[in-house]
Amino acid sequence: EGQNLATDNVTVIEGESATISCRVKNNDDSVIQLLNPNRQTIYFRDLRPLKDSRFQLVNFSENELRVSLSNVSLSDEGRYVCQLYSDPPQEAYAEITVLVPPGSPIIESRDDMVNEGNETELTCTAIGSKPAASIRWMKGEEELTGEATVEETYDRMFTVTSRVRFSVTKDDDGVPVDCIIDHPAAKDLLAQRHLEVLCE
C-alpha cells in the first residue's frame, strides 16, 4: 500500500493569498488534518482549532482538505504538514516560500554634468527584497555591465546596489540610462537618468 497523500509546494508574494491542498486517493474514512510549521493543528477535518482567521476552509471532502491563507507574511514561511490518520499514519509536506518585491529603485549619478571624454559613474539600489534582486543597466539600446554588491539587511531580506562606470562622448548627451530590476515578485521596475554631456 503506497502513499495515498499528496500536496504541493506554494510560492506566494507577501500580502497575497496561498492555498494549501492536502489530497487523498482511496480514502478509507481516515481523518485529514493540516499542521503549521510549528506542528500546531490548523484544520482537523473541517474544524479550525487555530485562532488565526487568515486560514479559511476552501474545500473539505474525503479526498481533499484545501485551505487558503490570506495576507501572507514572511513569518508564515516554512513547512506545512498534511496528515492522514490511516494505519500507518501518513504525512506529506508543503513548503511555503514567501517572495518580497523590492521598493522602487533609486538611481544616483556622481556627476550632474560630464565633460565629453570623461568617465561618469551611476549607482542604482533596490532595497528590501526576498530573494535578492538582480540589476541590469541599459544606456539607450546598449547593455552596460555593472558591479553589484548584495547585503543581507535582516531576516532573509536583501538590498542590492549596482555601480556602473563608463566614458561619455558628445553623442551621449540626452541619452537615457536605465537601471532595470529583475525579481520574481516584481514586473517592469526601473529607474532612469538622462546623461548631460558638456562638449569641449
TrEMBL record:
Domain Ig-like: 1-97, 101-196
Disulfide bond recorded as keyword: yes
Any one of the GO BP annotations: detection of stimulus
One GO cellular component term noted in the UniProt record for this chain: synapse
Topological type in the membrane: Single-pass membrane protein
Sorted UniProt keywords: Disulfide bond, Immunoglobulin domain, Membrane, Repeat, Signal
Database matches in InterPro entries: CD80_C2-set, Ig-like_dom, Ig-like_dom_sf, Ig-like_fold, Ig_sub, Ig_sub2
Alphabetical list of SMART domains matching this protein: IG, IGc2
SUPFAM superfamilies in the record: Immunoglobulin
GO molecular function: signaling receptor binding
Record's signal peptide: none
Protein localization: Membrane
Protein name as it appears in the record: (spotted green pufferfish) hypothetical protein
Natural source organism: Tetraodon nigroviridis (Spotted green pufferfish)
